[in-house]
């Protein structure tokens, strides 16, 4: 675990502290929460978490739009009474740009990072979330977050890269011409994006939200290594069978493969 001093020396954290200071947050002690696709740091003792786009920024040239959707959706959900981590109320949530870094600010919630969700418990959470998401009035992408820069960034042989490009093209075309009803989705619906707080479970991280078939979120749940996905799918009311998830499941599997390859290269010791 890095010290507050070593963490503060990172350019992302210096930029975040500078923005926070401009809005009167004062002296803070950075505490690392997570450093993977994005950098999440608690600006202690303030109840503020900064999310800085790191790996995501390298494969999403328009990452500010993703972060803006995250803020907008979380705000809508919190105002609708749904359990979602709200943006910070101590400073403008952003997105903010500083020294080449894009960031947003969130309310810090005490939580149990190692909480294990039972399959039926998580399925019920997702089933409750979807009707609220369906009422979201904002604009969302009409395709899943499998961006061309992500395909270009993954370490793969030329042959495998060509196969991935072809497969991704096929599933995206099939999703665009599909007959399944679509609605706003979480986009990355797995237990790692739910915090277990003193008040119960709270959804987090809507950066990958898009408008598509519910089967995509179900595929996210099914493929999670954090719970028994098949049991969770069986517990979701009215869910199709795994074999009936079809194109959305294949699309999610391809996205997961791309990110697994990329993260293995960026974090080889993890």
Plain-language structure description:
This protein has 270 residues and is α+β, with helices and mostly antiparallel strands. Helix content is 43%, strand content 16%. The strands form three sheets. It has a five-stranded antiparallel beta sheet with strand order 1-2-3-5-4. A two-stranded antiparallel sheet has the order 6-9. Helix 8 packs across helix 10 (246-266). It starts with a helix and ends with a helix.
* Average pLDDT reading: 92
What is the element string, with H for helices and E for strands? HHEEEHHEEHHHEEEEHHH
Please report the distance between the alpha carbons of the first and last residues. Answer: 13 Å
How large is the share of residues in beta strands?
15-25%
How large, in whole angstroms, is the Cα Rg?
19 Å
Provide the spatial order of strands within the biggest beta sheet: 1-2-3-5-4
Number of helices: 10
Structural class: alpha+beta
The strand count comes to 9
Q: Give the low-confidence spans.
A: none
Choose one word for the global shape.
globular
Percent helix, as a range, is 40-55%
Q: Give a short account of the largest sheet.
A: 5 strands, antiparallel
